[in-house]
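Hi both,

Apologies for the delay on this - the queue was longer than expected. I finally got the zinc ion-bound model through. Below you'll find the protein sequence and the ligand SMILES exactly as submitted, and right after that the structure tokens for the full complex including the ligand.
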Amino acid sequence: MFNLMFSIFPILFVVVFGFIIYMSFRTFSTSGQIFRLAQQRMKQELEASQPKPPRNCDYCGSSLEPDETECHDCGADVTHDNKG
Ligand SMILES: [Zn+2]
């Protein structure tokens, strides 16, 4: 009876130890994913929080809201980017 226990114990130890290593590896890789996701999210929020450059109507020069597609003053189409 004791002999059986002594032969099983090392196997059990190896199995449990292997499981712990496996779980820690899994946790590590998962936390790495979470870290990457959080980094991505932070970057997105940073970009969203940055103020957009002020836009002016090409035709009448009045200031426009960032999401405006039409000048509220003269009605000109302002969907194009002023950069080019
Ligand atoms: Zn205008």
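Main takeaway for now: The pocket of zinc ion is lined by residues 57, 59-60, 62, 71, 73-74, 76 (CB under 6 Å).

I'll put the files on the shared drive as well.

H.
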